[in-house]
Design a protein that fits this description.
The chain contains eleven helices and no strands. The chain is mainly α. The N and C termini lie far apart (72 Å). About 4% of the residues have low confidence.
Length: 298
């Protein structure tokens, strides 16, 4: 019991001292970096005001950036996982590290308390924090895969609507903007990604660079193929409407083939499930008569 109380007191003191020391300095530094970054982008002064207010209230995000990893490769990997899962704000990475390490610390304190008071096995005391340490990343991967699958599912419908707008005389950028506004309530994720793509192009990012960043934020096969089609069209100047129509048609054909393959495999999978139930009556019929005759012989 004394060990658990001592660990809890030390953890609270370390938490408070760390927050008091780094909060003010990192707050000023990060605000300045945010200001310089947003000043370089046209028309985003209001966004800076919003983000600066949000930062001033998110002290735990600042603390998370301090206690988080400093390895650039790991930071980029974590940022990519957060973006794929739909957490795009820069403060989210700090919040992720804060939640992760706070959960590990709380789990460790709880397991040490149980070990001290109730004699819990030491293996569980060691295993529980390790599981909690690995769990947040797996949750991010699951959320990212679900979000990317949702985007891939809605992509053909989005492109068909864009193709209809372009056939009506709109350019493909205006068509994307119009369809994003119309489908925002039905398909918010894919509409947000395309709207972000349009914002990048409008503030001066080259179209090819914006499309490549779009593919990096959404690392799915369909999105990457779409970006390749658009980049090729940007370089060659061919008809975007025909390219998108052909791309959408290929996507529908690919999905139809996948559904046919799944339907063909269903019978084989059902056979594995049904076979035990069929074998038992067959064995009863096959062996039952022999057992009856053997019983009558005695």
């Amino acid at each position: 019991m004394d060990l658990a109380v001592l660990l809890a007191v030390v953890a609270l003191m370390a938490f408070g001292v760390t927050w008091l020391l780094v909060n003010r300095a990192l707050s000023l530094q990060t605000k300045q970096l945010q200001k310089e970054r947003l000043k370089s982008r046209v028309g985003l002064a209001s966004q800076y005001t919003t983000e600066s207010r949000r930062y001033s209230t998110c002290w735990w995000c600042t603390l998370g950036r301090v206690i988080g990893t400093k390895n650039r490769t790991e930071l980029e990997k974590t940022q990519q996982l957060l973006v794929s899962a739909g957490f795009r704000d820069e403060n989210h990475i700090g919040g992720y590290f804060f939640i992760k390490y706070t959960a590990i610390l709380c789990t460790l304190l709880v397991m040490l308390s149980l070990w001290s008071w109730y004699g819990l096995r030491l293996e569980w005391v060691i295993l529980a924090p390790i599981v909690v340490m690995l769990l947040p990343e797996r949750v991010l991967i699951y959320l990212g895969n679900r979000r990317l699958a949702e985007i891939s599912t809605h992509l053909p419908d989005f492109l068909d609507m864009c193709n209809i707008c372009m056939n009506a005389g709109l350019s493909y950028l205006v068509a994307i903007k119009r369809v994003s506004a119309e489908l925002k309530e039905l398909h918010p994720e894919i509409c947000f990604e395309f709207e972000y793509l349009l914002d990048q192009i409008q503030i001066g990012v080259p179209r090819i660079d914006a499309l490549r960043q779009f593919a990096q934020r959404n690392p799915t096969k369909d999105i990457q193929n779409l970006v390749q089609v658009l980049i090729q069209n940007e370089k060659l100047g061919s008809s975007i409407s025909e390219a998108l129509s052909e791309f959408s048609r290929r996507m529908y054909q690919t999905r139809e083939q996948l559904l046919e393959e799944k339907a063909a495999k269903t019978s084989a999978k059902m056979a594995v499930v049904i076979m035990p139930f069929l074998m038992l009556p067959y064995l009863i019929l096959l062996v039952g008569e022999r057992m009856v005759l053997l019983g009558r012989g005695f």
